[in-house]
Amino acid sequence: MKGKSPDQHQKNMFLPILKEIINPKHELVIMANQIDWVYFEKEFSSHYSHTGQPGEPIRKMVGLLLLKRIFNLSDEVVVERWVQNPYFQYFCGESEFQWEYPCDPSDLVHFRHRIGKEGVEKIFQLSVDTRKDEIKTRDVLVDTTAQEKNITYPTDAKLLKKVIKSCNRIAEKENIKQRQTYKRTVKKLMYHQRFSHHPKRKKKARAALRRLRTIAGRLVRELERELNAAALKHYAEELNNFKKVINQRREDKDKIYSLHEPGVACIAKGKAHKKFEFGSKVSFAVVPGVNIIVGVQNFRGNPHDTKTLEPTLKHVEKVCGKKFKNAIVDRGYRGKKEVNGVTIVSPKPPNSKQPYSKATMRKKCRKRAGIEPVIGHVKHDCRMQRNYLKGDIGDDINALLAAAGYNFRGLLKKIKEEILWPLFLLEKYFIKYDLKTVIIENY
């Protein structure tokens, strides 16, 4: 059952309301008054039943999701900060100062599952609509980046060890008596894997890896023999992933890099400090100058940048309600000149007819380079540096929420610079002027 938010204007006989104890010129208060919270109430009401105990108010849950992204906090920390910060409480729709946690941190997980990708897209849509009057250009910047999943760096030995451990777990759960668990053997073999690139240890490490692969295959085949039909059907996907890990080789495609996240892909973006990243590819569309993210698309695997361009521009048109004239990209999108009526602008290589001009090339690339710091801030300030949300749907939700958090961070900065700072200077000037007048009159 849907919860109801309290009336922030209703006074209490025993407790002061939040509006009386907080600064009405605080940027969070101003931004809370600019957001259309009724829109979320209407859109998310269909996800609640009309019976049972009322849940937490929709405004509170959406507010916590936004605060988490704006201030780069985890589910546990944003709940703790909420108790300490009256501005967080006002932003989430509370009328009086609360002394207890707003909800359990796991409730944020359930709320994300409840609204799904479609609900998170509506949150992102509102983050763009709130700043729509700032979009005055017909150009948009497009680029891709890797969204890393929360997995360990994959190696064959670590994956095979996890296969063996998982087989033992399934056998113990299904009361299957194994011929051997290989726990002590695996421990010794993993010691032999240490410093496997050293010339004197390479031969022994390879032998240990072959032995681990043999043991893993033996345990998987034993499970397939001993499990009954119902259990075999229940564990079919896991056993299939185990077989892929055992049989895959270095040159294979569509490899499995994590047993609990089999959809993870290996992405090479050409970084000197990080050759490979394991996760999914995300495409961003940013309005130059004002730095508003107007399009986000998450892609499974590692598609070429040119294949990500059309879905990204379609999402931009869906979110903004209009089509941009130019999409400015880097050389990774070469080969594309026009997509759905949008002109693709990218740096051109020098040729014999037109001499290479360094100044001209800089001028073309300068605007496009503005998307790089935006992606950096989305990753480091809005929790996209490492994705902790599970599954493919978690990749989509994390990218959309990070982009929405970045847009609202920009709105907070705009409120500080264009509204609060001029008011501060104005008040400071008049106070000084009045003091000077008083001193002169007394003299």
How would you describe what is shown here?
It is a single chain. The protein is α/β, with parallel strands linked by helices. The chain has three domains: 18-130 and 408-423, no CATH class; 135-151 and 278-388, 2-Layer Sandwich (Nucleotidyltransferase, domain 5); 156-247, no CATH class. The protein has 16 helices and seven strands. Strands 1, 2, 3, 4, 5, 6 and 7 form a seven-stranded mixed beta sheet that branches. Strand 6 (338-339) and strand 7 form a beta hairpin. Helix 4 packs across helix 7 (105-129). The longest helix has 52 residues, at 391-442. The N and C termini lie far apart (70 Å).
Summarize the structure.
Helix content is 53%, strand content 9%. The protein is of the alpha/beta class and 443 residues long.
Uncertain spans: 432-443
Mean pLDDT over the full residue set = 88
The overall strand count is 7
Major sheet: size, sense and barrel closure?
7 strands, mixed
Distance between the termini: 70 Å
Percentage of residues assigned to helices: 40-55%
Order of helices and strands: HHHHHHHEHHHHHEEEHEEEHHH
Q: What sort of overall outline do the alpha carbons produce when their principal axes are compared?
A: globular
In percent terms, what proportion of residues is strand? 5-15%
| Rg (C-alpha, Å) | 28 Å
How many domains? Answer: 3
* Number of alpha- plus pi-helical segments: 16
The class by helix and strand makeup works out as alpha/beta
